[in-house]
Predict the 3D structure of the following.
Amino acid sequence: MAWSKPYSAEFEEQVLRQLVALIYRDQGEALASVGVSETFKEFDLALVPIVNWPAILVIPAVSEFDPEAMLTRKQWMNFRVVLSVTHQDRNRLTLLAMRYVKAVHWLLDAISPGDWHAQLPLPASPFGEGAVASIDRSVTNVQRLFVVAHEWGVALRAASGIFAVAVDLPVRIEVEEN
């Protein structure tokens, strides 16, 4: 008997791509709403040395599955949305980072159920020029997104004299897939 997959679940990849596409689409308006004009210059999917600031990293973390789900994959996907911001003054850096955190938190809270199924462009880095995201409604149903916390890193001073800080927004997404 030939092997066949038991369901059509896509697991984390499609949700991650759509989450990045939604942040990419809405970042300008969200940041402007808190008085910040500089959008994210770098999008990454792993903890890597950042070259361009401000930067945002969307990193898959732990996914948990419901053992009682029948014929579907009921799961809670956890992602780390990490913002990295720089400034010459460490006190102003903290205030600026707070604005970025507020804007991204509001952006994530404003995602509507229909947004998860919209076809949206992705940033060229890291996805490649012309890449798009969309989630197949017949396979994946995102039920809820929740920002768990704001986890502040320590402001560090680079050799150039500029300060940088990273803030981690752990995000929990409830998903059901066929």
Notes: The mean pLDDT is 94. Helices lie at 12-32, 90-109, 124-127. The first strand starts at residue 42 and ends at 44.
